[in-house]
Amino acid sequence: MEPAHPATKEAIRITDVIAHPLSQTLPKPTVTSWGTYSQVSIVLVEVRTDAGIIGVGETLARFSPKAYAELIETSLKPRLVGQDARNIGALWQSMRRSLSGRAGGMLIEAIAGVDIALWDILGKAAGLPVAKLLGGMGGERIDVYAAAVNWVDDAEADRELERYINEGFPRIKVKVANPVKEACRRIERLRKRAGDDIGLCVDANWAYNLDEAIEVGRALGANGYFWFEEPLAPENEQGYEELRKRCDVPIAAGESNFTADQAQRLVANRTLSVLQPDVARAGGISETRRMADYAGLHDVAYAPHIGMSGIICETASVHLAAALPNFRVMECECDLSPFKRELADLDPGCLRQRNGTLDVPTGPGLGIEINWDAVKRLRVQ
Ligand SMILES: [Mg+2]
């Protein structure tokens, strides 16, 4: 079959960059140690080219999405228009220089949206799915876990657990918070209810200090949980190193990191067993791949973080997962929000969870068709 957009030796020039700030009410609030989220936002980045190819990307922008859109259109766009969309490395470096100081924060999240769109263009121009451009591992499906049993009362937590088991998930994440005694009780209770054949892990969203984390770690070890996610604040690297020595459950973190250098210390000494960058935060596909590759060198697994994100973030993560040898398992949100349900038209069955797996799209680029009516509908005015 002829690729939709045959590869060309000519440059594919960027003609426009449009940032669409989108907002929605979640179908079901997410309840974590940080609080309850019922409204959430992202920015959809549209990159247009003179070859007629349009790439789409996603920026994690949970709050103030219009501020992100402004940053993309005023600081990044002038560095992109007129350039060859396929020089992703050079464009990334140029965008990085649009603000001074250490790399992080809104700038890297904004770059993420553009970077994902550029990979989408590269794939469409080559007639290949992004997973193959990244050096695919050849799998048609990738393993996911259900996210998540919320930090809600016992009866509701039991219902959520049961629902995920009934939907066929063999692995399920549980949110924990304070008080510690309650968290330990929840850990034991859900293990008993799930039985030994369901894989369980927890996410604390930085709820604990070191002493509390050690206590929760003991409960996790006693109940056979497979990882302890973000027990401490991401800056507390010394705490993570100490916890590693005193906790026999693998530690997972990384969704709060923006760039590879921020994960360096905890990966290099293998404090973390699992690194979880979010592609819509960590500089897009280019920087997330650097992080995952670096983790792989140190026998640390790569497990993509997806949190209250849209279909583009999810799909870009599936392509990375399908391309990287140290991929372990990806997060899968079970309550499909408008950002996932409405923003793109998917092949039947594609990206819909089946027995704890998701399909890897096979079309060129990211392999999704954006529903521009939904973009208009969800756009923040
Ligand atoms: Mg998390």
UniProtKB/TrEMBL annotation:
Keywords: Lyase. It comes from the Bacteria. InterPro entries: DgoD-like (IPR034593), Enolase-like_C_sf (IPR036849), Enolase-like_N (IPR029017), Enolase_C-like (IPR029065), Mandel_Rmase/mucon_lact_enz_CS (IPR018110), Mandelate_racemase_C (IPR013342), Mandelate_racemase_N_dom (IPR013341). SMART domains: MR_MLE. Residues 154-250 form the Mandelate racemase/muconate lactonizing enzyme C-terminal domain. The keyword Lyase applies. PANTHER family: D-GALACTONATE DEHYDRATASE, D-GALACTONATE DEHYDRATASE-RELATED. This is Mandelate racemase/muconate lactonizing enzyme family protein. It comes from Neorhizobium phenanthreniclasticum.
